[in-house]
Structures are given as structure tokens and as C-alpha cells.
Design brief:
This protein is mostly helical. The chain contains 7 helices and 3 strands; from the N terminus they run αβαααααββα.
């Protein structure tokens, strides 16, 4: 009867992975709409109104990370980065409650919860620095490199020409293969209004030559 426990553990794991893919893909989709990710990650499927490129990105990225030879190193890296990312907004909440205590808030939680979360989060974030400093240093290097790439490729006003052309081609392929398009607006009935699919100018130029 030992297979029963394994079966329910597998069901629980599948449910957790499904929830993570659902949440993280929407975060990527929202970030792309705000300009924090490439624009094609904000495309949605015209029939199902689902952010297919963001879902595929959320699934492919962990598969690439699983190719790491040392799973323990991967766990240390991911736990540290995720703990730091989730701890930052909680610290921001405590700072705002201290700096602007009288500001109107739609939802106001008891300060004991964020304080307890901060203590536990600091333990989870600081303990790996003591036990595995090399892996944590590499994680900080990767995060810093990501900030640099974000500034050069997305935030900077003048982007590299080849990078812009590559994004145009990827956007065109996503629209044609996945049948997705940028979202423009929604009416009160949540009916999707989409843009006409157009071939990027860079691809037109290549065809003409």
C-alpha cells in the first residue's frame, strides 16, 4: 500500500506546479505589458485569451535550469533569490507603515505578520550565505548581470539594432505560429479587441532584398 502515499505526493506536486505555472506566467505577462520583459511575452491567444508566450517561457526556463549538473547548487541559488525577492516587498510594507502611518490603505494587516515573515525570510536568506558562500556569490553575479541586460536591452532609449530586429522576428513568429496578438483593450463584457497582425519592417526589408 506504499504506492498510495507516492500517488498523493505526485498529485500534490502536480497541483503545485500547475499553480506556479499559472501565477508566474501571469506575472511575466504583466511585466511584459509594463515594459519589463520583451513585448512578445505580453501577447495573448486570440481564441482563448491566454498568454501563450508567457506560459511557454515560464515552462521552458525551469527545464533549462534543470540541466544544471548539481541539483543542490540549483536549490541553493533558487531559494536564495526567491527569498530575497519575496522579502523585498515585505520590507517595503514595513517601511511605508513607519514612514507614512496615516496614509489611507484599502487593506491594513496586523504588523505581527510581516514582522514574523521578515524574521523567517532573513533567516532563509542569510543562512545560505554562511553555509554556501560561493553559490550565493554566483547568484548575486547572475542577478547583477540580469539588471545590466535589462537596462541595455529594454530600459535604455536607444537599443542595439540587431537586438531590436531579433525581437521583431520573434514577435512575428509568435503571432503566426501561436495565433496570438497584443492586447489593446476590453469592453464591459470582457470582449477582446486585438490588433491586426503585421509583418515587422525588418522582415519586409529582408524579403525585398
Amino acid at each position: 500500500m506504499g504506492w498510495i502515499i507516492a500517488f498523493f505526493v505526485a498529485c500534490s506536486t502536480c497541483g503545485y506546479v500547475n499553480g506556479v505555472i499559472f501565477v508566474n506566467s501571469r506575472m511575466v505577462y504583466s511585466g511584459a505589458r509594463e515594459g519589463h520583459f520583451p513585448h512578445f511575452l505580453s501577447f495573448i491567444q486570440v481564441d482563448r485569451c491566454t498568454p501563450i508566450p508567457a506560459v511557454m517561457f515560464t515552462v521552458i526556463l525551469p527545464l533549462v535550469m534543470l540541466m544544471a549538473p548539481d541539483v543542490g547548487w540549483l536549490l541553493t541559488y533558487s531559494v536564495f533569490v526567491s527569498s530575497f525577492v519575496t522579502l523585498a516587498p515585505v520590507l517595503g510594507l514595513l517601511w511605508l507603515r513607519y514612514k507614512e502611518p496615516d496614509k489611507p490603505r484599502p487593506i491594513k494587516v496586523w504588523l505581527g505578520f510581516p514582522i514574523l515573515y521578515t524574521i523567517l525570510g532573513m533567516f532563509v536568506a542569510v543562512f545560505p550565505v554562511i553555509t554556501r558562500p560561493v553559490e550565493i556569490a554566483f547568484a548575486l553575479v547572475v542577478v547583477s548581470a540580469g539588471l545590466f541586460v535589462y537596462y541595455v536591452t529594454l530600459r535604455k532609449a536607444t537599443k542595439p539594432k540587431h537586438f531590436t530586429q531579433a525581437l521583431d522576428k520573434v514577435s512575428y513568429v509568435c503571432q503566426m505560429v501561436l495565433m496570438c496578438t497584443p492586447e489593446t483593450c476590453k469592453d464591459v463584457n470582457h470582449t477582446l479587441t486585438v490588433e491586426v497582425i503585421q509583418v515587422p519592417e525588418t522582415i519586409d526589408e529582408e524579403r525585398n532584398h
